[in-house]
Amino acid sequence: MNLNQGFEKQGNFLFRYRGQIPVLIFIVCLPVIVFSGNYAIDNVFEIITATGSVLISACGFLIRIITVGSAPEGTSGRNTQEQIAEQLNTEGIYSIVRHPLYLGNYLMWLGILCFTFNLPLLIILSMAYWFYYERIMFAEEAFLEQKFGLEFLLWSSHVPAIIPSFKNYKRSDRGFSIKKVLRQEYTGFLVIVFCYCFIDNLRYFILSGKINILRISVIILATAVIVTLTFRLLKYHSQVLK
Prior knowledge:
By secondary structure, this protein is mainly α. The chain has helices at about 5-15, 20-30, 30-35, 45-70, 100-115, 120-150, 150-160, 180-185, 185-210, 215-235.
C-alpha cells in the first residue's frame, strides 16, 4: 500500500467516526481540563478570553449553518458509511473554501479549548485536529476527483482547502433551508453548549467546592436540552421539519 492509499484508507476510517472522535478526545482530555480549572474569570483578560471563546465557537457554528442550509440534497450530509456527492458544490461558501464544515468544526472546538485557558492543550489538539481532518479531507478529495474529474481539479486549483479566500466568491442561486439546519444541527449545538457549561461548572466547583444548580450555565444547558429534544421530536414525529 503506497502513501496515498494509506492516507485514503485512514481518512475513510476517520470519516465514519468523525462525529464521535472529537467527543472522545474531549473526554480523554478531562484530567487536563480539571487541572486548568483554577480560573475565576474575574479580571479583564479572563473575561475577554471567555467571551472571545464563545464568539469563536459561535462563528464556527454559523459557518456550519450557512454550509448545511445552502447545500443541495445529497451533499454535506451526515452519512457515515461512505462518501456521497451527487453534485460538486462550487458556489456560495464552497467558492471561498473547499471544506467549510471542517473549518466550522475547528472553530467550534477552538473556542472550547480557549475557554480552558490551557495554551499547551490548545496547541497540541490543534495539531491533532489537523492530522485528523487532513486524512478525512484527503479521502474526500480522492473520491471527488475520481467522480468529477476535471471539474474538481479546476475548482480545487483556486479554492483553498481550509483557510477561506474571498477573492473568488461566487454567489449561489440556491435558497437557504432553515428546516435542513434544524433537522441536522441540533445535536452539535447541544454538544458545544454542554462542553462550555461543563467546564464552567467544573471551574466553579474547583474554586468553591460547591455545586450550584441555579448557576446561569446550568440554566443555559437545561434550556439547550429542552430545545434539542423539541427539534428531535419535531424531526421524527411530525411533518414540521420535513
